Amino acid sequence: MSILVKPNTKVLIQGITGSFGARHAQLSIDYGTSVVAGVTPGKGGQFFEHGGVKVPIFDTVADAVKQTGATASAVFVPPPFAADAILEGADAGLDLVVAITEGIPVRDMVRVKRALQGNTKTRLIGPNCPGIVTPGEGKDSHGGCRIGIAPGYIHKKGNIGVVSRSGTLTYEAVWQLTSRGVGQSTCVGIGGDPVNGTSHLDVIKLFNEDPETTGIIMIGEIGGSAEEAAAEWIKKNCKKPVAGFIAGATAPPGRRMGHAGAIVSGGKGTAAAKIAAFKDAGIGVAVTPSEMADVLLKMM
Amino acid sequence: MNIHEYQAKHLLAKFGVAVPFEIPARSLNEVRPAAEKIAASGSSKVVVKSQIHAGGRGKGMFKTGFQGGVKVAGSVDEAVGFAEKMLGNVLITKQTGAEGRQVQTLLLAAGAKIKKEFYLAVLLNRETSRPLIMASTEGGMDIEEVAEKHPEKIFKETIDPAVGIMPYQARKIAAALGLKGELFNAGVKLVTGVYNTWWECDASMVELNPLAVVELADGKETVMALDAKISLDDNALYRHKDILEMRDLNEEAPLEIEASKFNLNYIKLDGSIACLVNGAGLAMATMDIIQHCGSNPANFLDVGGGASKEQVTAAFKIILSDPNVKGILVNIFGGIMDCNVIATGIVAAVKETGLKLPLVVRLEGNNVLAGKKTLAESGVAIITGDSMADAAQKVVQAVGK
Ligand SMILES: Nc1ncnc2c1ncn2[C@@H]1O[C@H](COP(=O)(O)OP(=O)(O)O)[C@@H](O)[C@H]1O
Ligand SMILES: [Mg+2]
User: Fold this and answer.
1) Which range is least confidently modeled, A34-38, A81-85, B266-270?
2) Contact A168 B147 (CB under 8 A)
3) pTM of the model
């Protein structure tokens, strides 16, 4: 049916009173997501109101979890405080923390990742990611779980899993699917930073186990070797068709292409190497981003 | 952000890393007194080093034909002579590209008597999300070449960020470099200092190539950093005001500086088709599809989440100041933003900049029909593309004509 979140997952929003967090809290509520709590230290006891929904605000994530039963959070906290917010979510025992914040120092994420090591309860997605959408059962797939900043309306309930480092490329793939009448089980943006909580491979494994996911689109970028690692695993273990695209074939080495993680350095992380790994693993390679959905649908 | 060698060594020295006696000089007037001070310190040789944000200076060549961006002088006069050939001239190394970089600062260093050259670097290992120290006895060489041909000659030590570098780890590296006795202890101190510099300064990379065993005037040996390169995590600069002051705008492309003022992420490339895109991944993919259609992208340009009229106008101005640009492809996936707002911004920007080049716009997403209508009825010549592929083909065709 979906991975990571179900349509009725109870979501809290860390940084709900900031302009960015507030805007996307509203959009999630509009999408029918069950936003049950907000957290802004110092504003506990107030309410966030939108479209007839009254969301209580708490000073701490622990309080919010205890009072509302939220199991997932979206982090919209500014970069200097984001590492703290992520670990607060883990400390409160959330199942899922989705860090939307862009621009968190790498050293902070190195510490966060170390602190989460061995934590089997909380999964971190991101940072610097568009978040997760599990489309809902309602009209126009309304009533789904939208955590983050993805446009809800482009999604449609269905059976394709999408995982990507890039926000807009995820939307592109999702939109291609939806315009062809093909829906998605869950769409996951894992983020464009060099240190992130969840890798392509982690998400692919979840899709592989999810009975309702029948095909997967994996979108990667130059830099690092996470796409290669996922491809190697897919070759040996994945039971489902996977189509892939790698962005950055034309990017010059040594230059960071927007995302902190998208950089070819020391001859490593090239698009050519990643595409070769995809081909070797039997992943259908979309030569251009316009063909991501078509390549997958042809395989199915 | 990158900093110069002399600035990197300044940071390293704060963390106890031994460096030669050195003085930076920004003009010829400063060179002679600096060289004299170094000579007076007991050094028979003065090394004159071009300061640019690129490696390979030693083997580089100036546009004037003068050979070498790092020169060892036997006298103060010779040092001044070298400085005259370097300051203000353009140095080309294998890391600068053909256009090279103008040398605006020199570093005058006490010439060390080198016994051995090593390589030492600290960086993030993305596979483990932990810091990694890399060391090799093959110093002064291109480390990528060593990694490829002699991977066994690269020693790696992963650091647990929860505890930081432990003394035994620094000892393992000193041992791997074959250091003995007092040199071993000096090596341990140096490795620890280099790691701490990386961590405390929020560096993304610290590289010493070479780190050297040198003989001092009294015949004793020690280890020191003869070259140092540090790049920093831009996202962490807010907590390092002192390092931020080291930024050298002369080393950055003027168009990229201009772009950053408007929150645009712009990188100039060599092709003829400019692109303007929202989102880094989509921007890279747009560059790729231009190449796939038989042309080459003139730039990477990510306007971020929004695309306001001000941003699009600024972006057009930046794009148009690149004389190689023959056509423009705008690719916007208006997820949350209203495509009609974006379309209105594009039309206004075209009018304001008086754009004459072929412009292809691909809009998709929220309220796209109204957006396309705005473009069609604007009275300005805008070609619309339906998909990314369609738009890319159209712009390549329009430019080819
Ligand atoms: N202070 C110094 N004393 C003696 N030799 C030096 C000194 N600094 C650099 N060198 C020599 O010059 C070479 C090139 O200088 P380096 O600083 O490594 O520049 P680059 O890596 O840009 O070529 C070094 O490998 C080293 O052999
Ligand atoms: Mg060097």
Assistant:
1) B266-270
2) no
3) 0.93
